[in-house]
Structures are given as structure tokens and as C-alpha cells.
Amino acid sequence: MDLRIDSATARRLEQVAALGAAQMRPLGLEADRLGRPIPADHPFFATLVRLGLGRTRWSGRPGPVTGGGPPVEGEATGARHFVCLAEEMAYWDRGVAVAFPGPGLGEPPVLSMGTPEQQERFLGPFRKPDRPRWAAFAMTEPGAGSDVARIRTLARREGDHYVLDGEKSFAANASRADWIVVWATVDPSVGRAGHRAFVVERETPGLGDFKIERKMGLKAYESTSFTLRNCRVPAENLLGGEEHYRGREGFRGAMRSFNATRPAIAAMAVGIGRAALDATVEFAREAGLSGDPRVRDRIERAHRKLRAARLLCHRAAWLADLGRANMVEASMAKAVAPAAALEAAALGMEVLGAVGARGDHLIEKLFRDVKAMDIVEGTGQIQRIVMARHLVNLPRDA
């Protein structure tokens, strides 16, 4: 495994670091203080578009993209590239990073499952966007989180449309999205075999009741719940078309999406942990605590665990770039990184002592932010189930 960072990624990381120090962290702190997401019309997002951010990694060539895909116009676009960027952006503020315009988590299923026509239609506007654009992904429901087999949003065929009825929860950036990949079932009684993925476009009748949830942390981006009531979606918006869904292919498509994104989500946890550790070291020095061997031992332990977690993220992304199966490695990264980051943030709170109780220190914010990383994209418990099933050779999609 080659751990070198290519020149295009290194340039982008420098750009993100400069942007993070100047704008991302201040915006994240402001959003946390105000308790609301950054508005969609904030000039920061237009600045990102001008910098070439918020674009798709779709190359414009037909065919499924399971990993990072080939380079586009001389820029790195692989999974490792995005893992590096995810960590650096989360270092400055993970909430702001998720608020970035772009196809977001809606992109992987369109890349891996969409027809060439669907990729052109839905990802084409993100190749060189004329304005800040968002897309979204909606799997979670009030009664179905990590156990995606329990989704109950129903899709029934009526002529050349599907009619969707149900509720979705915690879909990032959904209310401002051009389109949302919505997972539904054509028959709840058959479990995963009934899963289908639809692209539901903005202003589709029946799509509504958007509600931005109040959260403990990560307040810079919107986590949105919404409903689908007699929502008529053209059959051509069924990702992959009818022929794509045989057996459990709909469920497998969802799992491929998660395996592609989990390394980057895990890397975001590493970024938050790094930020907490750096702030802890700074505070310890200022408070005269860095000479305490107990404090130094805890700092070294947290640093070591974050380094190990980073390697797991890169391993999973490296496999994705090679087009090789990475389910176990993606789960390892997702299970380990949030725990390591939480330990780093908890250590920071201990070192802060009474200062942490004031609620105005960066570490206190990071402590609230980091908890979500063990939940999103499949909880740590679910990742351990995935790995354990693999170890005893149970079917991976049973």
C-alpha cells in the first residue's frame, strides 16, 4: 500500500487548511453559538464554488464508479484523495464541511447504480456548477436507522410513475437539495429484496414537511426530516432501472454506497480528534500541565490511537480505489476512528477541568460534535456485527 500523497491532493489540502483557518472554524463556532445551520445563501458557499469545490467526482464517462474513479482534468479524484480532504476539513469544522455544496452522500449510489443517462442528468450540473448546489441521501426513518432492512417508505408502481409514501429523518442538506436519493421498499414483507432507490427532485409534488432538527453538536449543517405523501416520481428516476433490481440488488447498492463513504466519515472523526488533541496540548502548555507525566502519557495514547485509525481509513479507501471489496476494512475504520476521536475529546475535557464547563472553549464544542461520528453511516455496534459475521463466514447481506 502506497501512503504517499499525490501533488494534486497536497495542493488541495493546503487550500483547505488556509480556508479552514480563515473561514471554516470561525463559521463553525458562529453556527454553534447561534444554534442554526449556515444559510444556503451565505457568501461562503459561493466562494467555495469559485474555488472549484462542490463538484462531482463523476468523470462524464458512462459506467459504474465503485471507488474514486479516474482523474479528471489533472486533479486527483480517488477515494484516498477524499479521505485526506475529509480529515482536513473536519479538523477545522466537520459541521461546516458537511454543509459544503456538492452532491454529498447522494453521489455514491448514482455513481455505482445509475444508468449513464441518470449520471449525466443528475451529476452533470455538479461538474462545473454555476451556483452552490446540493444533493442529499435519505435512508434513515423514525423506525429504521442502522437496521436498514426495516425501512417502511413504500413505493408502488402506477403507470409510468412510482408513488412514494413515508417519512425520512436526519438527511443532511435535504431541504436545500436539487434532488434526494430516497430509499424505499416495494414490499416490506420481503425485507431487503424489496429495496429500491429513487432520485426525488426538488418541487416534486408530495415532497415536503421539511424540518431541520435541533442537535447537540455539528450545528453548522442541517439534519432534516421530511415526508413523502402520494409523491409521484417518474419511473425513469428509479436508479439503475427495473433490470437493476434482482434478488437483493437494491440492498447491495445501499451497502456499496456505505462502503464507499464510511472511510471518509471515519476520517472526519480522525480530523475532529486531531483538533481536540491539538487544542488540549495548547491548553496544557499554557496551564503548565505539560510537565505532568500522566498528562503526557494520556496525550501520547490518544495520538497513537488516532494515527492507527487514520491508517485504517486509508487502507479501506485504497481498496476502493483498486475496485476491490472493502466492506470489512470500511467497517473497521468506522468502528475504530470515532472511539479514538471521542477519547481525544474526552481527554481534552478532563485537562480543561472547570474551564470546560463554561461552554465557550473549542474542546467543549468538539466534545459535543464528535459523538455523532459513532452514529452516522452505521453505528459502531453495527460495524462490529458486520465484522463478526465476516469472521464466522455468515452471508454478508443476510
Layout of secondary structure:
Layout lengths: L6 H28 L8 H8 L28 H21 L7 H7 L2 H8 L11 E4 L15 E5 L2 E12 L6 E7 L9 E7 L5 E6 L10 E12 L14 H38 L6 H29 L5 H26 L9 H9 L9 H12 L7
Parallel strand pairs: 1-4
Antiparallel strand pairs: 2-3, 3-7, 4-5, 6-7
Helix pairs in contact: 1-3, 3-6, 3-7, 4-6, 6-7, 6-8, 6-9, 7-8, 8-9, 8-10
Find the CATH superfamily of the domain at 249-391: Butyryl-CoA Dehydrogenase, subunit A, domain 3
Report the biggest beta sheet as strand number plus sense, adding barrel if it closes: 4 strands, antiparallel
Overall shape: globular
Helicity, as a percent range? 40-55%
**Topology, number of strands:** 7
Enumerate the spans where pLDDT stays under 50 for 5 or more consecutive residues.
66-76
Looking at the overall shape, the CATH architecture of the domain at 249-391 is Up-down Bundle
**Strand order of the biggest β-sheet:** 2-3-7-6
Q: For the residues shown, what is the average pLDDT?
A: 91
Based on CA atoms alone, the radius of gyration comes out at 21 Å
- C-alpha termini separation: 31 Å
Structural class: alpha+beta
Q: Estimate the strand proportion.
A: 5-15%
Continuous helix count: 10
Strand and helix order = HHHHHEEEEEEEHHHHH
CATH fold group of the domain at 249-391: Butyryl-CoA Dehydrogenase, subunit A, domain 3
CATH C-level category of the domain at 249-391:
Mainly Alpha
